[in-house]
């Protein structure tokens, strides 16, 4: 049996008073998400099962911007994105601008496994979730006090027009995404990412988290990656696949590739970026250029930890 490894993240970006106030709860949530995924790996489960379960845990935790706790768009509505990818088969699934689905990453996996498609959005995604009998929740379930306070702050700062909401997205105070990467006993890797998007976003805005090769990427030849930060920056630079490409074409190892991407290749990029990654041997790393990135990890070698800020 190979080295079992799982990493999770809860977003990268600027610090805030809310994060400082709730830092112990954030760390507990991250630790428990990693433990949830690791428990599946330890019991012989697949990397796909582990990353889905870890992300489900974070989607259910109202502190994180995914599932319950999602950011509100400029109409005070929740629209969620998610993606998942299997490094063994290179199959993937993704969902965008979906409402009412309790666990969007589970819907993304259902799209991967039960349809011939990869990406479904909006009402089509919701109808498919109903067909698959996935759990749906009323709008009120997803809206937390913190998300509503952020919405009010955004609408006060901007006039809440579509044009100004677009400008606000690149100046927003916090970024939020959750994700997980893992390698199982057979050396198969997987990645999953889920988000509620950015606060006060234009309705219908699709971020990086649901795009294969950007929010999530997994390939047994190289690694599994989940990214977080400024979505538009990550999209422009195809962040998750970029790590795999550096490993494959430049011959760097996992840590070197992540470090090269953030600190060299994209050193002049204007925006927050964070990545977590694992290779089929269980080597793992994380890299970010922002003030903080919520993260936790656990391996069968006894390595485990949780962090918010740079060490």
Task: Give an overview in words.
It contains eleven helices and twelve strands. With 311 residues, it is α+β, with helices and mostly antiparallel strands. It has one domain (5-305): Glutamine Phosphoribosylpyrophosphate, subunit 1, domain 1, CATH 3.60.20.30. The chain has an eight-stranded mixed sheet. A hairpin with a 5-residue loop joins strand 5 (178-183) and strand 6 (189-195). Helix 2 runs antiparallel to helix 3 (47-60). The longest helix is centred in the N-terminal third of the chain and has 20 residues, at 23-42. The chain is globular.
Features:
311 residues; alpha+beta; Glutamine Phosphoribosylpyrophosphate, subunit 1, domain 1; four-stranded antiparallel beta sheet
For this structure, what is the CATH homologous superfamily? (Glycosyl)asparaginase
Largest sheet properties: 8 strands, mixed
The CATH top-level class label = Alpha Beta
Count of strand segments: 12
- What separation lies between the terminal Cα atoms? 31 Å
| Rg calc | 18 Å
Shape: globular
Low-confidence stretches: 165-173
How many domains? 1
